[in-house]
Structures are given as structure tokens and as C-alpha cells.
Amino acid sequence: MIQLNEITIKPLEQKDATFIAKWLSDPKVLEYYEGRDNPFTINKVYEKFYKENDTVKRNLVLVNDSPVGYIQYYRLDPEGVKKYGYNDNELIYGLDQFIGEVQHWGSGLGTKLVTIMKDFLFNVLNVDRIVMDPQAWNTRAIRCYEKCGFTKVKLLPKNEWHEGEYRDCWLIECTK
């Protein structure tokens, strides 16, 4: 568990699936994460977020003890290292997140959350580089990540299937 002021990041538990299902069936959230044509049922949440032997560290985000979002981090696998053009001698982690309670959008929570996780990955897990690949049209998320010290590295054409088409993404990174 990671806690700083009002924000807590805690490992995802079985009982948290209802929050994920709620958020990932909201068209406002789905517009940015997974796609409005891809709503999640509780069974789909269990299939995607509760895999055995998964190396992804999945977490619930709370503000003042109320669930508001999701964040995950993982070591980039050799395929990802190659895809993004990095070398194998660095410890590189990927990061993905969303704020599921839309009333928190635009409040600065995303910036606080990414900064907390960035500090944890650099200072506790001692990673060399953190990467993300937001869709290029998602300017609000990209601005948030840039505020947290991430920079655009390269455009990834047709990188992610979203709402019926492959979308361009930016590879962004932050180093120590």
C-alpha cells in the first residue's frame, strides 16, 4: 500500500471488482479507456483484472478512503522493450491508470496519482525508466503526464484498437 495525504493506492482485491465494472461500463470513462463499444460486465472484469500468475501489479486508488480509480504497473517484457526500441540492460516499467469517478476529472488528482506512482517506482523499485502509450488524441491525459515529467519519445502509428479502429499513440517516458 502507498499512501500520501488523502490518496491511497492499495492492491486490488476480489471485492473491488464491482468498482472496476461500474467504471468500465460508464461511457464517459470508456471513451478514454477500453472504448465505448467495449463495456465490462463483472465477469469480464474478473477475466481481465484477476489473472493468476500475472506480473501486472493492479491497484485500486482511493481518495479519503473512497474508491475513485485504478492504476497498474508492470515490468516491460522483452517484446515491449523491443517494440519501443529500448535495450535490455535497463529496468523499464509501464504504467496505466484511469480515474473512474468522473467528478474527480480536472481536479489535479491524475497529476498527484501519477507523481506518487512515479516516485514509488523510481525510489522504491529503483526502475530506470517509466513508459506509457496514451492515444495521441487524448490531450488531457498527455498534458497531465507532461506535468509529471514525462516527455514524448515517438509516435506509434495505429498502436491500439479503440472504438472500431486502430489509433495512434504516443510513446512517452520519464527517467530518473
From TrEMBL:
InterPro entries referenced in this protein's UniProt entry, alphabetically: Acyl_CoA_acyltransferase, GNAT_dom
Pfam families recorded: Acetyltransf_8
Domain N-acetyltransferase span(s) in chain numbering: 7-173
PROSITE patterns xref list: GNAT
Designated name of the protein: GNAT family N-acetyltransferase
